[in-house]
Design goal:
Structural class: mainly alpha
Radius of gyration: 48 Å
Strand content: under 5%
Distance between the termini: 124 Å
Amino acid sequence: MEAESFFARWSKRNAEAAEEKQAAIAVPASVSVSQPVTDALPKPPPTIEDVATLTSDSDFTPFVARGVDENVRRSAMKKLFTDPHFNVMDGLDVYIEDYNKFDPIPPAMLAALNHAKGLLDPLSQLEHPLMRLLQTPPPAEEASVQAEQLEHKAVDNELASSDIDDDVDNTPDQASHDNPV
């Protein structure tokens, strides 16, 4: 029973609210007829002469309305933004530099960054382990090590060429393969 009384009150209030809306809509229609005719006529769009009379306290809304000449609109906006109020730096001036043009890294700094190559390219560490870089011999020893490596290569090449010559001399004749023993 309480549900029925709740829904009855709810529908009664909705009906009253709808009647009030209808009454509010009907009243302004009759009032608008009694308003003066001067408000009904649209104002002409502002001109360049009107821009000259603008101050920082003026209302700029007529200059940005539809139907206003683009030159008049731009002139009004220029006049508005000449106010010193709009020329205050906002604290983000740190970001006004051109970061597309940069200074090259000096060679001394590049030399100091050589140790980080392995960190930036971990695949190169597979080919050249880091410990190997620490165990490189001093430059004087390096020259002697390179000379020894060249000697070993020359000896290896000489031995390899002599083995090839021996193999050529020891090749069996073709005829002996044709007649098995």
